[in-house]
């Protein structure tokens, strides 16, 4: 029978679903994956006290198993619903500006109506992709790659990504991902500005011609 041990969570990456426990009886920190949580146990936070057992994986490495947070209520009995995060002002302005840009392109500059329809479809697909990645993280399953999520944003799906990120509280704290996400937003806005407004395209073409002529 496995011996129950006690320790404290000293690191927890919620997006990636793993962390480390410092044993009360000393020794090296113990790796714990979200799939090692006891049935019904909520995800831990740094500083939580936990009970756990030690097991070896297929490669002989020690890891925590049957991890249970002290004082936690079984989520199968009383599931906790976390409220969606509020959108930031920048996010609201970016989505509103994008919508106005597409509408103006269609109504005033003969841009094909198919373009905003495709953007809406890609945004919907992106929202589902983020929701699925959140579910996989919670279940400890293989995750959707960040490059795939960012590619969907680059194709115009970033409004759906913002909606999913805020609704599911997912991918909002990892600085490197958030930075890359806003790069895709910036690039997409520039690209669709050139698509929607002929004057912008002509200005860019003229500038490129002048630069090539000067060279």
Automatic annotation (TrEMBL):
GO BP terms, alphabetized: regulation of mRNA stability
GO CC terms of this entry: cytoplasm
UniProt KW keywords: DNA-binding, Membrane, Phosphoprotein, Transmembrane, Transmembrane helix
InterPro entries to which the protein is assigned, alphabetical: Ca-reg_mRNA-binding_domain, CSD, CSP_DNA-bd, DUF1294, NA-bd_OB-fold
Segments forming domain CSD: 4-69
CDD domains attached to this UniProt entry: CSP_CDS (cd04458)
SUPFAM superfamilies: Nucleic acid-binding proteins
GO terms, molecular function: DNA binding; mRNA 3'-UTR binding
Extent of the signal sequence: none
Transmembrane segments: 89-107, 113-130, 180-200
Name by which UniProt lists this protein: Cold shock DNA-binding domain-containing protein
Protein species of origin: Microcella alkaliphila
């Amino acid at each position: 029978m496995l011996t129950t041990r006690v320790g404290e969570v000293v690191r927890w990456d919620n997006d990636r679903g793993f962390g480390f426990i410092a044993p009360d009886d000393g020794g090296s920190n113990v790796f714990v994956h979200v799939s090692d949580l006891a049935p019904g146990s909520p995800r831990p936070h740094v500083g939580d006290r936990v009970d756990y057992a030690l097991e070896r994986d297929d490669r002989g490495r020690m890891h925590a198993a049957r991890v249970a947070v002290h004082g936690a209520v079984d989520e199968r009995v009383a599931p906790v619903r976390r409220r969606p995060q509020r959108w930031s002002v920048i996010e609201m302005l970016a989505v509103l500006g994008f919508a106005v840009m597409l509408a103006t392109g269609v109504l005033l500059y003969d841009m094909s109506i198919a373009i905003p329809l495709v953007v809406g479809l890609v945004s919907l697909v992106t929202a589902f992709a983020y929701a699925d990645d959140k579910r996989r993280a919670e279940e400890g399953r293989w995750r959707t790659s960040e490059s795939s999520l960012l590619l969907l944003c680059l194709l115009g799906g970033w409004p759906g990504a913002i909606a999913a990120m805020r609704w599911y509280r997912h991918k909002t704290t990892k600085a490197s991902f958030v930075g890359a996400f806003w790069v895709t937003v910036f690039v997409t806005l520039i690209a669709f500005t050139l698509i929607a407004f002929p004057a912008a395209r002509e200005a860019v073409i003229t500038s490129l011609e002048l630069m090539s002529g000067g060279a």
